[in-house]
Write a structure and sequence with these properties.
The complex is a heterodimer of chains A (330) and B (233). Chain A has 330 residues and is α/β, with parallel strands linked by helices. Helix content of chain A is 25%, strand content 37%. Chain B is mainly alpha-helical and 233 residues long. In chain B, 39% of the residues are buried. Classes of the chains: A alpha/beta (330), B mainly alpha (233).
Chain lengths: 330, 233
């Protein structure tokens, strides 16, 4: 795919500084910029938005980290800078996000409502590139997956750069993910790969070791949903439409490793596989088990010793379904 | 104390007696000159102040210094310069404006414009960074961006209008020089006060002063009402 955006971003005087060589955004790509506070994510996206005039950049729709509600009604705020088609679209997105009373004074909105107004107006813009700085920061935890899903769908075929430091948001919103630390991009790749295989301890420390399995929602049982990712069926909590794409996510620390042939107790997710790698992760060990798909587990050195974990050993891996989050895809 | 009370009684008497025949003409002239001059200051000063406050350009700081200095320009100096420009034989002498109300409007607008520019620039420039960033993100045409910014800081811009009006209505030096305080033609409340004081007609002078204060009160009450009405939202 051709690059929509390709530039070097050097902003040595910034606080935080940014030094990214060959930043690239492909057509239709949804790239998550992930990293801790102060890593330079917002500075980078401001350069991409042209707010910090550091490099010539193409026009982009930009959602600032702290969206501002101007004096006037919600409707007026929703429609700033939009064409008449954009206005119609903004109202549709706003309605989808649950904003109904557009006659209210915008200043009276809660943080989450104001954020929704800002999301609707940025998604209604016509630019081919969309830049979102922490779009879900002010949205209530329980609404985040839904709002993220709406953003994802409304982005459509446009390319986007999305800043976040939340793993769930990253998994829902991004195809690719770039991890930023100290102003540099230290790892870039598909979201699932970065979560499953951080290049080093510093990245692992930032992303937390997580498993993201991408597949299709297969079955629903109460509030549990299963996702088929290759040969693997993973059960988790969440909502997804059967047959549509879905992602299952769980942290490495929620994975239990048992000796081969063990009973699996109450865990719905229990798979047999072979250990592929054992790495040190600070005081813990990161174990990669191939169960038809690589699954990452974080264990204590004591547990590893008791199990005699060596590369190639056959083990049973189990994860409680309640520790797995399932989110509907596009 | 007795003297002051006597003057006060004379002033009240003058007020109730209608201040002699030319009060109406003086108040009328004062009002329209002040309103037109303030109007010019608003039309010229608010856009320029917005550009100065929002814009990022090299001369921004130097221009701000000049504007702030002009805000404190002595009216007599402004009047003198304008007199020289409008004098017969001066560059604009052929316009024949000297000692006419339009020259007085010009003098007052000259004094009020820097105030409108300076206070608007300070108000708009003081927008929070998040508001400026969001404004930039809208990619609005320049004039629309300025209009949104002014509306956002309207109470402060309303204050700029009030300050410009206050400068204009209370000013005496410049209108005296370019207007000449000609009875029935270019006499306004401030120059009338000077005139009556010189002739030791203190009661009469004070009465004009009360009328002047009353006018300022009415206009400022209007502006303040608009400020509060909107900042409640």
């Amino acid at each position: 795919m051709s690059a929509l955006l390709e530039l070097d971003v050097r902003y040595p005087t910034g606080a935080p500084r940014v030094d990214v060589e060959g930043f690239r955004l492909a057509e239709q790509e949804k790239l998550v910029l992930f990293g801790p506070n102060g890593a330079g994510k917002s500075t980078l996206i401001k350069v991409l938005a042209g707010i910090i005039a550091q490099a010539p950049v193409p026009a982009a729709a930009y959602l600032p980290q702290a969206p501002w509600m101007f004096r006037g009604t919600v409707r007026e705020n929703l429609e700033f800078g939009l064409s008449s088609e954009g206005t119609v679209l903004a109202r549709a997105v706003a309605a989808e996000l649950g904003l109904t009373d557009l006659g209210l004074q915008a200043r009276q909105l809660s943080g989450g409502e104001a954020q929704r107004v800002a999301i609707a107006r940025v998604l209604a813009r016509s630019e081919e590139i969309v830049l979102l700085d922490e779009p879900l920061a002010a949205v209530d935890l329980r609404d985040r997956a839904e709002v993220a899903g709406i953003i994802r769908r409304r982005l459509g075929r446009r390319a986007a750069v999305i800043v976040t430091h939340d793993r769930d948001d990253a998994a829902i919103l991004g195809d690719a993910m770039a991890v930023m630390l100290d102003g540099r991009i230290v790892q870039r790749g598909p979201v699932a790969d970065v979560f499953a295989q951080p290049v080093d301890e510093s990245v692992a420390g930032v992303v937390g070791v997580a498993n993201v399995l991408v597949g299709e929602a297969a079955e629903v049982d109460g509030n549990l949903v299963s996702v088929d990712a290759g040969d693997l069926r993973v059960w988790g909590l969440g909502e997804a439409t059967i047959g549509s794409s879905a992602r299952a996510m769980f942290g490495g620390e929620t994975v239990t490793i048992l000796p081969s042939g063990s009973g699996v107790g109450s865990a719905r997710n229990s798979w047999t596989g072979r250990i592929r790698a054992v790495r040190r992760l600070g005081r813990l060990l990161e174990v990669v088990i191939d169960v038809g798909h690589p699954v990452v587990a974080i264990v204590t050195p004591g547990a590893a010793e008791a199990l005699d974990m060596a590369s190639g050993a056959e083990v049973v891996v189990s994860v409680k379904a309640t520790a797995v989050r399932v989110v509907g895809g596009d | 104390m007795g003297f002051v009370l006597e003057v006060l009684r004379d002033a009240l008497e003058a007020l109730s007696g209608g201040l002699g025949g030319d009060l109406g003409a003086v108040v009328w002239l004062t009002s329209w000159i002040a309103l037109v001059a303030t109007g010019i200051a608003v039309l010229v000063g608010i856009p320029l102040g917005t550009v100065l406050g929002l814009g990022e350009f090299r001369a921004k700081r130097s221009i701000t210094v000049l504007v702030n200095t002009a805000m404190g320009m002595p009216p007599v100096l402004a009047g003198l310069v304008l007199l020289l420009l409008l004098w017969r034989g001066g560059p604009f002498g052929s316009w024949g404006l000297l000692f006419t109300p339009p020259a007085m409007v010009l003098a007052q607008a000259t004094l009020a414009i820097p105030i409108a520019v300076g206070l608007t620039a300070a108000a708009v420039g003081g927008l929070p960074p998040a508001a400026k960033e969001q404004l930039a993100a809208f990619r609005l045409p320049r004039w629309r961006r300025g209009a949104v910014a002014v509306r956002e800081v309207w109470p402060a811009v309303g204050g700029a209008v009030a300050a410009a009006f206050g400068r204009v209505i209370s000013e005496v030096g410049a209108v005296l020089i370019v207007g000449g305080n000609i009875r029935g033609e270019t006499r306004v409340l401030t120059t009338a006060i000077v005139q009556e004081t010189r002739q030791a007609q203190f009661g009469q002078a004070l009465a004009f002063g009360f009328v002047l204060l009353g006018m300022a009160l009415v206009v400022n009450a209007g502006i303040t009402w608009l400020q509060f009405k909107d900042s409640a939202q």
